[in-house]
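In practice, a research group might receive sequence data for several interacting partners and want a quick structural hypothesis before committing to experiments. The following worked case mirrors that situation: the sequences arrive first, and a predicted assembly follows.
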Amino acid sequence: GNSVTQMEGPVTLSEEAFLTINCTYTATGYPSLFWYVQYPGEGLQLLLKATKADDKGSNKGFEATYRKETTSFHLEKGSVQVSDSAVYFCALRERGGSNYKLTFGKGTLLTVNP
Amino acid sequence: GAVVSQHPSRVICKSGTSVKIECRSLDFQATTMFWYRQFPKQSLMLMATSNEGSKATYEQGVEKDKFLINHASLTLSTLTVTSAHPEDSSFYICSATDSNYGYTFGSGTRLTVV
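A structural hypothesis for the assembly, expressed as tokens:
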């Protein structure tokens, strides 16, 4: 079956530090890949996505590139801010199928200190 | 953009009572809705997938008689936790998708059973 493995947290950084959160996946086909962010007490918001190999998703300074050869979709940001503190989830959606459900990683808690 | 409204955001109920959580897509027709449960510091666990007008598909280990899901229209799905017990206390999140394959999440419901 499909699975997503995320870097274990928590991750604590100082403001303006470089961020990398690793994500690798296992899927039988060619999935679409997503990063979601969850702020305390809230639901999930889509941060970025990529639908095919070598695509780069980007949003709010975050980037992730779909690497088919390494089955990875690592999240990066060059300079984090305190407001980036949240839980980040990597997810995949298998192509085809009737329900299009997402498979999530376990989430990585990021805390950015001023 | 697409908006999903989830209500209530917080609810406290007594053991043995039932609680209904609503999930509404406000500006699009949700062909499929998903219900997740999230334990503290853990990932989202998919409970069930529902398509409008048909019975929900429950994930393995989820009691369908305890977690009743109704998806009566393209804009509304409800999750009813029946005969709630303290171990049902959790954060429940819904998600809706339309034919464009975008996923929009509700803001979640914190259920506390006392």
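Before designing any experiment, note the following. The longest strand of chain A covers residues 86-93. Chain A has no helices and twelve strands.
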